[in-house]
From TrEMBL:
Name assigned to this protein: Heat shock protein 90
Protein family according to the UniProt entry: Belongs to the heat shock protein 90 family.
Origin species: Stylosanthes scabra
Shown residues in whole-protein numbering: 74 to 662 of 778
Histidine kinase/HSP90-like ATPase domain location: 27-184
Keyword annotations of the record: ATP-binding, Chaperone, Nucleotide-binding, Signal, Stress response
Extent of Acidic residues compositional bias: 220-249
Length: 589
């Protein structure tokens, strides 16, 4: 086309397209999932903007938020059209070719090693999956802020953009036209498309229509050539009062023939899963919903979920879909959760910034955190491996094998996030501390919790003992533990660098103080001879202190913390532990 402007794909994108176009990957169906997902995203965007500006939707058909699929068998074109936000010329250039997303090269690498394309959407390059089935693709798009443009490419390293002066105006939105390859003919079958849309649109909240053929019975004159007979029938049928005898004698002068007509057929049920009663939603449906929400189409199941209706000051109920672009709904430390909040309490006609500061949003956030932490706690409660009670353990495990080991799995993946939460979220610190897991001098390589530690505390033990270091092996050899071990006290091993920071925030738990056993202030029960010893070694400790000078040590004391080792260097109460010094040094290097 004469007015077309040519562009080259960014190198990584070009490489990705090469791989796709030559791919032998068998599950090519996924391209439709990606296109529907993009259409749905684009519709969400315009709907979101319309919350604060109704005008933006336009009038008539343009305001209809739907997705339309059409087939052209002769030209072998499959087109998917949405009335979403659309793309300006600049958007087309950037989004479809010149700017590589961060996931592009990661995905290319993954495909080259595994050959698996299913996760393409998660890497932010789902659009290019169209080249699994098409060798030429046109993207026609109209954004409110620009004229209609056409993007086109044959996946030969380049694409072209032209102002659209020949296609039907879209009003607003995007139409993707796939010129299918010969071997992709199945995507021109209505039945195939219906099946795929059903599979991929379960949680799409916009209607998806197919321009579907329909066989209808039509009455046509029995003998179309005979003009006189047709007109005589019409005359008679108009005459309602015609005598019965005449009617009976009359032979039917029309016949029924099959005719193909086309109409928009709705393919999905748009009733949102979150509006249904949690009791009526199956585990399988939740799993599928998670896959669609998280764009995670691997085999992974969600570890757990929580579905609730909040009532009271803020109702989360039907109507407004709050965009997941609100980072404010969950704190960073819970960002591994995927979710959806639906509320009609939020005001519609305020700016986004104001919406973010709205008090309902804070209430929602508070409740979401609470529910999330409850949910995580439940994973632990239902995990037979977590139970210390032997009888209960057997009982639980026999009928709940599936939940076995789930908490350890969670902890390995997201333990760091929980620790981050303890540091950042003072309000929920205690709830989060309940979720902590660690090894101890007595846990025999297994993970244990603070509650379990407390249940094993010796009578008269006031503090929770812990020690920090690089690894368990190193800590086990520490002279700081000699005496404690001999006296049968349990000591927590904190071996993650973040633990040092964690313990600056976690001062106590259930009225028990935390005591770093490598620091000053360790009290191991009462020692009757303490005073006497202190007195008799007074001269020695004084001599040591002056010999080492105040630059090197604060004090030299008699202590009952050791057993075999004659002396040990202890950190002052408010100073950094030796481990912390090590961490800080490694950070500055
Ligand atoms: P992702 O959807 O993860 O961002 P894609 O490769 O599927 O990655 O799409 C790339 C980008 O192209 C999208 O982020 C969006 O900006 C744009 N885009 C794709 N399809 C549409 C559409 N139907 N309407 C508007 N924009 C679209
Ligand atoms: Mg996408």
């Amino acid at each position: 086309r004469s007015n077309a402007q040519k562009f080259e794909f960014q190198a990584e994108v070009s490489r990705l397209m090469d791989i796709l176009i030559n791919s032998l990957y068998s599950n090519k169906d996924i391209f439709l999932r990606e296109l529907i997902s993009n259409a749905s995203d684009a519709l969400d965007k315009i709907r979101f903007l319309s919350l604060t500006d109704k005008e933006i939707l336009g009038e008539g058909d343009t305001a209809k938020l739907d997705i339309q699929i059409k087939l052209d068998k002769e030209k072998k074109i499959l087109s998917i059209r949405d009335r979403g936000i659309g793309m300006t010329k600049e958007d087309l250039i950037k989004n479809l070719g010149t700017i590589a997303k961060s996931g592009t090269s990661a995905f290319v690498e993954k495909v080259q090693t595994s050959g698996d394309l299913n996760l393409i959407g998660q890497f932010g390059v789902g659009f290019y999956s169209v080249y699994l089935v098409a060798d030429y693709v046109e993207v026609i798009s109209k954004h409110n802020d620009d004229k209609q443009h056409v993007w086109e490419s044959k996946a030969d390293g380049a694409f072209a953009i032209s102002e659209d002066t020949w296609n039907e105006p879209l009003g607003r939105g995007t139409e993707i036209r796939l010129h299918l390859r010969d071997e992709a003919g199945e995507y021109l079958e209505e039945s195939k498309l219906k099946e795929l849309v059903k599979k991929y649109s379960e949680f799409i909240n916009f209607p998806i229509y197919l321009w579907a053929s329909k066989e209808v019975d039509v009455e046509v004159p029995a003998d179309e050539d005979d003009e006189s007979s047709e007109s005589s029938y019409e005359e008679e049928s108009k005459d309602d009062d015609a005598e019965k005898s005449e009617d009976e004698e009359e032979k039917p002068k029309t016949k029924t023939v099959k005719e193909t007509t086309y109409e928009w057929e709705l393919l999905n049920d748009v009733k949102a899963i979150w509006l249904r009663n949690p009791k009526d939603v199956s585990d399988e449906e939740y799993t599928k919903f998670y896959h669609s929400l998280a764009k995670d189409f691997g085999d992974e199941k969600p570890l757990s979920w929580s579905h609730f209706n909040a009532e009271g000051d803020v109702e989360f109920k039907a109507r407004v879909f709050i965009s997941d672009e609100f980072d404010e709904l969950l704190p960073k430390y819970l960002s591994f959760l995927k979710g959806l909040v639906d509320s009609d309490t939020l005001p519609l006609n305020v700016s986004r910034e104001m919406l973010q500061q709205h008090s309902s949003l804070r209430t929602i956030k508070k409740k979401l955190i609470r529910k999330a932490l409850d949910m995580i706690r439940k994973i632990a409660d239902e995990d037979p491996d977590e139970s210390t009670d032997k009888d209960k353990k057997d009982e639980v495990s026999s009928d709940n094998d599936e939940k076995k080991g789930q908490y350890a799995k969670f902890w390995n993946e997201f333990g760091k996030s929980i620790k981050l939460g303890i540091i950042e979220d003072a309000t929920n610190r205690n709830r989060l501390a309940k979720l902590l897991r660690f090894e101890t001098s007595k846990s025999e390589g297994k993970l244990t919790s603070l509650d379990q530690y407390i249940s094993r505390m010796k009578s008269g033990q006031k503090d929770i003992f812990y020690i920090t270091g690089t690894n368990k092996e190193q800590l086990e050899k520490s002279p700081f533990l000699e005496r404690l071990r001999k006296k049968n006290f349990e000591v927590i091993y904190f071996t993650d660098p973040v633990d040092e920071y964690l313990m600056q925030y976690l001062m106590d738990y259930e009225d028990k103080k935390f005591q770093n056993v490598s620091k000053e202030g360790l009290k191991i029960g009462k020692d009757a001879k303490a005073k006497e010893l202190k007195e008799s070694f007074k001269d020695l400790t004084k001599w040591w202190k002056s010999a080492l000078s105040s630059e090197n040590v604060d004090d030299v004391k008699i202590s009952n913390r050791l057993d075999n080792t004659p002396c040990v260097v202890v950190t002052s109460k408010f100073g950094w532990s030796a481990n912390m010094e090590r961490i800080m040094q490694s950070q500055t290097l």
